[in-house]
Amino acid sequence: MKIDILTLFPEMFTGVLQSSILKKAQDKEVVTISTINFRDYSTNKHKTVDDYPYGGGHGMVLKPEPIFSAVEAIPHYEQARIIMLTPQGEKFSQKKAEELSKEKHLIFLCGHYEGFDERIREHLATDELSIGDYVLTGGELAAMVIIDSVTRLLPGVLGNEGSVETDSFSLGLLEYPQYTRPEEYRGWRVPDILLSGHHQNIEKWRKKESLKRTLLRRPDLLAEATLDQTDRELLKQ
Ligand code: SAM
């Protein structure tokens, strides 16, 4: 996968892209991630990228020219998903991460100040995504969140591929509780079933805990999940 990030603050990405699983994914060449400072595409002698809003009002609006020029300089941009980060967009989800992980090329547009000139939304972006109902100063953190969750789904990125499948949301439910050594800590014991070595019973326990946890914390997810007869019986227990 190829990812291009248009931003006025490429330095914000340094730590995130150079650490942990995102770094490994790039080292393995599963993903190539580049930042592009669209200020470099401003033709104005002061390299301005924003201007006052027509009609008046507070703040500055990102001009269309540098953003269109920066995107159009990316080879094969016409085949890419061009994702505008905006609090007005569709709310990002695990389902969206799975959908995006199947693409070959993603371009992220990080806004700042009062946001984008509407013509960028209308004539350049193919998608508009929000990471939640709150307003950030810029799209950079939102882009990082999305890139992180998409990259970990790419084949070969996580050592243990199975972990993606049991993660919260992947099956429409929250994940079951996890424990590691020691068996007992400050008198708090790991549930006996997990030490039993009985795989079938462990799977059943995990499914039940997963259903129970989802029912208590996120009944909205449960309403959407596809449950079979066994799941429904486990839920009643
Ligand atoms: N005036 C805009 C509005 O009310 O819709 C908000 C602009 S915000 C201060 C600046 C930039 O931060 C946006 O252009 C967008 O790129 C990014 N941003 C802010 N909140 C976001 C969110 N919840 N999800 C994704 N991007 C966000």
CATH hierarchy, class of the largest domain: Alpha Beta
| Oligomerization status of the protein chains | single chain
Query: What is the CA–CA distance across the termini?
Result: 45 Å
Structural class, from secondary structure content?
Answer: alpha/beta
Instruction: Assign a percent range to the helix content.
Output: 25-40%
CATH architecture of the largest domain: 3-Layer(aba) Sandwich
The count of strands amounts to 9
In spatial order, strands of the major sheet run 2-1-6-5-7
Mass-distribution shape: elongated
Average of per-residue pLDDT values: 95
**Poorly predicted runs of 5 or more residues:** none
CATH topology of the largest domain, anyone? Alpha/beta knot
Unique ligands: S-adenosylmethionine
Helix segment count?
10
Order of helices and strands: EHHEEEHEHEHEHHEEHHH
Radius of gyration: 22 Å
Domain unit count: 2
* Biggest sheet record: 5 strands, parallel
Strand residue content? 15-25%
Pfam family, one: tRNA_m1G_MT
Family: Belongs to the RNA methyltransferase TrmD family.
InterPro entries: Alpha/beta_knot_MTases, tRNA_m1G_MeTrfase_C_sf, tRNA_m1G_MeTrfase_TrmD, tRNA_m1G_MTases_N, tRNA_MeTrfase_TRMD/TRM10
Keywords: Cytoplasm, Methyltransferase, S-adenosyl-L-methionine, Transferase, tRNA processing
Task: Please give a handful of descriptors for the protein shown.
237 residues, alpha/beta, Alpha/beta knot, Trp Operon Repressor, Chain A, 2 domains, 5-stranded parallel sheet, two-stranded antiparallel sheet, 10 helices, 9 strands, binds S-adenosylmethionine, S-adenosyl-L-methionine, tRNA (guanine-N(1)-)-methyltransferase, tRNA (guanine(37)-N1)-methyltransferase activity, tRNA_m1G_MeTrfase_TrmD, tRNA processing
